[in-house]
Amino acid sequence: MPAYAVGHKVPDSDSICSAIALSYLKTAIGEDVRPARLGELSPETLFILDKFGLEQPELKLTFADTAGIYILDHSDRIQGPDDIDDCTVLGIIDHHKLGDITTATPLEIWVRPVGCTNTIIKMMYDFHNVEIPKNIAGAMMCAILSDTVIFKSPTCTTADIKCVEALAEIAGIEDYKALGMEMFTVKSSVQGTPVRELVMRDFKDFNMNDNLVGIGQLEVIDLALFDDMKAELHADLQAVKAEGNRHTVMLLLTDIMQEGSELLVVSDDSSIVEQAYNTKLTDGKAWLPGVMSRKKQVVPPLQNTFA
């Protein structure tokens, strides 16, 4: 019976590429670990897998019948498998705040304040002295470029940059920044995409002092791409809030060239959001200069305000 490596619900490129990379590493050192996913893949992730000839991880929503799971790119129960309480958690590899997953037995934990889970997994490959296959190295590199917004995110560290450089050499990529821009161009293709798909493309729920808060993020190379759809996006946030019985739903429209985000908000109490970011909402919107990271610049101040 195999174990599985799995990222969070509504998986992004880091979740998917880390599942592939960790399962290969674990198998190389004698464990039967397979990659899995909790949802459908984004256009960016599909681009990465196609670029390096990698198969999509298995779509698997229950894990109680497995040898255990490695939790990747999160440690909040609400973001993981629905049956996590019936699973053996073998390990957590993550770069976010420490969440509320608890275990009955000892586990392996690699948690580092870096820009991407794949940066940590590169450290694990080095620790175990396992050679990274060329295609997996390329996918890991792209995941780091995605999560660090090609090193523009405040979450980016020297470790992330060094790992990208090393992975690019393994993968045979001469101009990794050009590939990163190509990747973000794919990510910016929003025209013609259903609004609900955009809202949920990179969406995470958080428990903030017993209030359910959903935060989505769309990163593009030009915020003008949303000019004709902001009203529809805002209306769908209302629907997502009602359907999930959430206190607050927010969507970050992040412009990677201007290095800031427009925040769309629907909330039972908008003053909490205004206080968290020291801003004033106008028609449920506000521009947050310099804000590019959900985990470092958006979640912590909001969580503190709710507390």
UniProtKB/TrEMBL annotation:
Enzymatic class: hydrolase
Catalysis performed (reactions):
diphosphate + H2O = 2 phosphate + H(+)
Q: One GO cellular component from the entry?
A: cytoplasm
Cofactor(s) the record lists: Mn(2+)
The record's EC number reads 3.6.1.1
| Keyword Metal-binding carried by entry | yes
Name the Pfam families on file.
Answer: DHH (PF01368), DHHA2 (PF02833)
SUPFAM superfamilies assigned: DHH phosphoesterases
Using the record's annotation, list all stretches that form the DHHA2 domain: 180-306
Record keywords, A-Z: Hydrolase, Manganese, Metal-binding
Molecular function (Gene Ontology), one example: metal ion binding
The protein's name in its UniProt record: inorganic diphosphatase
Identify the species of origin.
Colwellia chukchiensis
